[in-house]
Write a structure and sequence with these properties.
This protein is of the alpha+beta class.
């Protein structure tokens, strides 16, 4: 699709009302998440995402499913990634960035692959590539972060650009990183079973923002977890965090404060990238208003 046609979709609600491009692809990129339902509580993906244009991806690496993402071709970013949190047993891997072959070629290999040089034109047209982020003033923001994945192979799998959104460094290495570590601590301290996590991006309400005129920039990041089995007799100060909890983080220091207020006392490098903790119901209400869809993230509210 040409850049002119892409930019024609740069207004408000049309961000999420784009044509469906995934009907002909096969294998791990498919019409639903039937091959990777284990990453969702009660084997049930989020309900209510009913606008066209989204492509489910069962993220496959080294012959195993690692997590799931709901990808948007036109935005060249995921709406969310869903995974099971499991603390890393090693360091952040040094691995080449990867792409999803079946977004470019319907009968391609079902496993994510490292980018080749030069990048095939079909790959460029179907998804984000490394060059999109060069000199963009945005980092590659993981929705499923490598520190939330136990094995080396699981951590490697997070380095696909179908798991990435443009994220400001002040958010990525600041308050959002603090949130990711706080989730790890809660899992280690209080969960007695799996923690299901869904982390996503929220577009601008006023119209799309882009890097390289190709990749949609989110105004906010959001995340929610479901820990259905947790320790009894929780301390009073953590009872509200179970079985579910959620957060929204600013990705633009100039955004309004109606969703996430700004802490004016924060140090300059992270000021304006605040994260607000909230209930699951509050997050779903924000998503409902911003996306125009009645979204339920966890089956039965994780009850």
């Amino acid at each position: 699709m040409s850049q002119r046609k892409i930019l024609q979709f740069s207004t408000g609600a049309l961000l999420l009302l784009l044509p469906w491009f995934g009907g002909l692809v096969l294998g791990e990129v498919n019409k639903d998440f039937s091959n990777c339902l284990d990453f969702f509580y009660y084997k049930t993906p989020p309900q209510g995402v009913n606008a066209p244009g989204y492509q489910p991806i069962c993220q496959r690496h080294k012959n195993q499913y690692r997590f799931a993402s709901l990808y948007h071709h036109q935005h060249r970013t995921p709406l969310y990634s869903a995974y099971l949190l499991s603390p890393a047993d090693g360091k952040r891997p040094s691995v080449a960035w990867m792409y999803e072959p079946q977004l470019a070629f319907s009968r391609a290999n079902s496993e994510m692959q490292p980018f080749a040089t030069p990048v095939d034109q079909n790959v460029i047209e179907s998804q984000a590539e490394r060059e999109d982020y060069r000199n963009s003033n945005f980092t590659k923001g993981h929705l499923n972060p490598s520190l939330h994945q136990k094995t080396k192979e699981d951590r490697e799998a997070t380095f696909t650009l179908t798991n990435i959104v443009p994220q400001r460094a002040g958010s990525n290495s600041g308050p959002w990183s603090t949130l990711e570590n706080d989730m790890l601590r809660k899992f280690n301290s209080f969960c007695e079973g799996p923690m299901y996590v869904i982390t996503g991006a929220m577009p601008y309400e006023s119209g799309a923002r882009w890097i390289n005129n190709r990749v949609s920039v989110p105004e906010y990041m959001w995340s929610a977890y479901c820990c259905p089995s947790y320790k009894p007799n929780l301390p009073d100060h953590v009872q509200s965090f179970f079985p579910t909890y959620a957060a929204v983080g600013r990705n633009d220091p100039n955004s309004g404060e109606e969703i996430v207020p700004v802490n004016v006392k924060a140090r300059a490098s992270v000021r304006g990238y605040d994260v607000k903790r909230m209930s699951l119901e509050t997050l779903e209400g924000i998503l409902r208003q911003r996306l125009g869809m009645s979204i339920g993230l966890f089956h039965g509210q994780c009850q």
